[in-house]
Amino acid sequence: MIIRWLLLILGGVLLGGIVHLATVILLPRTATQDAYARLTPIAPVNTVVALPAPTPEKAIMPFMDPAFASAVCRYDLSQGPLKLRVPVSPAYTSVSFYTRNDVAYYAINDRAAGRRVIELDLMTTAQHDQVPEDEEITAADRLIVESPTVTGVIAIRAMAPEPGLMRAAQAAIAGARCGTAQPEPPPPAPQPQPQPRPRR
Amino acid sequence: MRLLIGTLFGLAIAAIVGLGLTYLSLTRGTAFGGLSIDSWTAWPKSGTTDADPYVRASIARSGRLPTAMGDGVSFTLQSDDEGKVLDGRCDVVISGVTPVARFWTMTLYNPDGALVANSTNRFGFTSQEIVRRSDGTFEIVVSPRASAGNWLPTGGVDRYELILRLYDTAVGVSTKAGREVPMPDVMTRSCP
Q1: CB-CB under 8 Å, A19 with B19
Q2: Looking at the 3D structure of chain A, how many domains does it have?
Q3: What is the pLDDT of residues B97-129, one digit of tens each?
Q4: A93 and A161 assigned to the same domain
Q5: B111 touches chain A (CB under 8 A)
Q6: How does strand A143-147 pair with strand A117-124?
Q7: Which domain covers residue A4, as residue numbers?
Q8: What is the pTM of this model?
Q9: Are A16 and B60 inside 8 Å of each other by CB?
Q10: Based on the domain organization, do A126 and A160 belong to the same domain?
Q11: Same domain? A24 vs A95
Q12: Are B109 and A159 a contacting pair at CB < 8 A?
């Protein structure tokens, strides 16, 4: 009789281990409050949206660095590759790429880019394979990044090493553009003031 | 009947053990795979596609975007060098130097990842704002009461954590604790 219950407990614990592993692996796919879900209501697809600075009362995501001006581009590559253009701020600018499940797969900063403007093309592996080889050579100065997922988020962040430099960082971020690849658009007019957006 | 009760009993144990382990591993922090230097811990792999399922689940649950490799690395501090949990009612002194990085920031959050309200609206320091001694070392006083020098207010909360983010740094996945990565010392000086 006791052996029977011990076996049941052992079986339960083993099954519990499987439940544990399954829930950990499935959780990212079912999370309703992950970063991508938090950004969805405020960030239209394939557009750069400046994020309000985090405050003690309200922040779009937890653990945001208050020394940075940040913007996101929530992308969808199903209509074609994405072109990203980020003017760098005086201090430090970085562009980080995340999959739909918030896994960081690539990041570049202003020094690694080596120019005043970070410019790159984002595409899926299938789209990259379709790029003609000679075109890739002529476009060798353009950086091509492959996204593991069709959708995801690009985080654009510019540092304000002192509070007085926050305005310059925000201005740099405001000049960032992302969009599906079109014939070269005219350079957009700089927008020093981020657009006011409705609070949720 | 005995079979039914037995099966339900086994399944109940499976649910409690399985979901309990998941909950604990995601709320108490994932201890493995981290880079611990003194009391500071970083998960450099959380900023790469090599992130393990625990890190991925923890990121999805918290709703943050991790610091990507190539951007920088984040070190979290939850207790002082003697293992005492950081208490917002005490004076905690952070002193020394940081690993080489182009910039760093140190920010105070409550355990949920929100900034902590205070009268001076200071939530952290950047490497450029900090006042240093002539030998290049610095001292930050994390305390509910105003203090001379680099004062980081806690707002009097019970628990908080500090995050030291190194930007554009060589510290990363292949880093081992050692002399190349000197982290600041953390001492609780006085508690009311």
Answers
A1: yes
A2: 2
A3: 999 999 999 999 999 999 999 988 899 999 999
A4: yes
A5: no
A6: parallel
A7: 1-30
A8: 0.85
A9: no
A10: yes
A11: no
A12: no
CA dist., res. A39 & res. A72, Å (int): 8
Is residue A69 a part of any domain in this protein? yes
Asked if B113 reaches chain A (Cβ–Cβ under 8 Å), the answer is: yes
Cα separation, A91 vs A77, whole angstroms: 31
**CATH code, A42:** 2.60.40
Same domain, A113 and A90: yes
Same domain, A173 and A146: yes
Q: CB contact, 8 Å: A9 with chain B?
A: yes
Structure tokens at A23: 């829930």
A183–chain B nearest CA distance, Å: 30
Q: Do A107 and B71 touch (CB under 8 A)?
A: yes
The residues facing B150 across adjacent strands are B140
What letter does residue B47 receive in the DSSP assignment? G
Would you call B103 and A91 a contact, using CB atoms and an 8 Å cutoff?
A: yes
* Shortest distance, CA B81 to any CA of chain A (angstroms): 23
Structure ipTM over 0.90, yes or no: no
Interface test with A, best of B1, B9, B21, B71 (most A CBs within 10 A): B71
Q: How many CB atoms lie within 10 A of CB B67?
A: 27
- Residue-by-residue pLDDT tens, chain B, 192 positions: 788 888 888 889 888 888 888 888 777 665 566 788 888 988 888 888 888 888 888 888 889 999 998 899 999 999 999 989 999 999 999 999 999 999 999 999 999 999 999 988 899 999 999 999 999 899 999 999 988 889 999 988 999 999 999 999 988 877 776 667 889 999 998 887
Say how far residue A125 (Cα) sits from the centre of its chain. Answer: 18
B41 touches chain A (CB under 8 A): no
**Class of residue B29 by CB neighbours under 10 A (exposed 0-12, middle 13-18, buried 19+):** middle
